[in-house]
Amino acid sequence: MTDATAEPQTTEVQEFEREPVPASHYKGWKSFLGMYAGEHAAGTEFVIGPLFLTAGVSAFDLLVGLFLGNLMAVLSWRYLTAKIATDVRLTLYYQLEKICGRRLVTAYNLANGILFCFLAGAMITVSATAVGIPFDMEMPKLTDTTPNGLTWVLVVLAIGAVISIVAARGYDTVSRFANIASPWMVLVFLACGVVALQGLNVRSFADFWNIFGEGSEPFPGQIKYTFWHVMLWSWFCNAAMHIGMSDLTVFRYARSASSGWTTAAGMYVGHYLAWICACLMYALYIRSGEAQVMLAAGIAPPVAPGPMTYETVGVAGLICVVVAGWTTANPTIYRAGLAFQAIFPKFSTVKVTLIAGAVATIAGLFPAFAMKLLDFVAVYGFILAPIGAIIVFDHFFAQKAGIIRNYAERVQSSFNLSVLLAWFISMAIFYSISVYQGVFLSFLTLPAWLFCGVLYLILSKFLQKNN
């Protein structure tokens, strides 16, 4: 699960930021296949896989839940994101501006930029667990929320500074490094999985199944995941990108909406395969004497990608963790910088990217963002997905509902109140249900998305008549 809003070529995006992509610049499905396969086999996968095990998932929950959840994500990209993208050929931000108005898009950019910084911070944390090994650094525990020592602070600050400087050099530099590193990272993930299977004495599918069996009690401080937790979380961990419509910016270059099927490469190589491989590494680790002592004392063994991969495949694993965190954090910080620049247009790209990098680095000091990544990603998708519902319902249902499509553009408004109310009310209602009724947030992402879209149509019907 990574930032998949990166365009195929930055120069083209700069040329067509406020107009449809011309046919001469359309791209075939191969242009998207490699991008999705690479961008979804990244630093987050080293943390997400083990966290499923800490949640006590069963073999069925993991294998079938992940398969169906990722399938639903692919279908969302294909039939919603890619469909609308090839219909309008516009970036997410310009499409939103046409519906919402420039002032409201500013609020969205602020939320988007801050959440991107926190996600990048989690990836800096991931890289730090590898860099800190030669310094005998104490690794963060699952329950840690604040920095655990001076060495941790210094390592995170150093990594954050390097990543921020590279991100500030522009997307060409960022994407070039990621494209070179991604195929190698996939191979390392596979190697980790194979070695972990050997260490677990897996000789058949039955042996593999028995690693998880019927599930177990969650580790201290974690909640129990069922089939529905796994399925819905894996569907909506990229909710901001598909039903949230962020990837309009990517698929506007596609020759046809069928290019949306290429997201399967990311979901089943980067997510399904990489998550399971990372989960196997952690399964091997928790059989160690050190981990067993912690469990006996009621302490959850740390989910530290650096030590896990080092114990599994040696130095290659450490390098992979650093690179994986790097290739996720770099484009994420770059994207955060672009979101902030839309709010502060007088600032240079370099300046706002460095500011975003500083925020991400500060976030990286706090292990909670990485150790609670399942929860954070659920919140991230929940907040941004309803904005996608506005685009979807405006595109498909505006005419049937008798409202003006692309309302802000048509009436020259900088603030569409219907959008703000629909977004805020849907989030407030369903987030309150999650908090006060103890409902897993990913269970509520789709209801909140649908509610926001319907409420937008109703409010537009009323408010547009009164303008």
Automatic annotation (TrEMBL):
Membrane is among the record's keywords: yes
Transmembrane residue ranges: 51-75, 107-130, 150-168, 180-200, 225-244, 265-285, 312-329, 350-370, 376-393, 414-433, 439-459
Keywords assigned: Membrane, Transmembrane, Transmembrane helix
Tagged with keyword Transmembrane helix: yes
InterPro entries registered for this protein in UniProt: CodB (IPR030191)
GO CC annotation: plasma membrane
GO molecular function, one term: cytosine transmembrane transporter activity
Protein name, entry field: Purine-cytosine permease
Organism taxonomic ancestry: Bacteria, Pseudomonadati, Bacteroidota, Cytophagia, Cytophagales
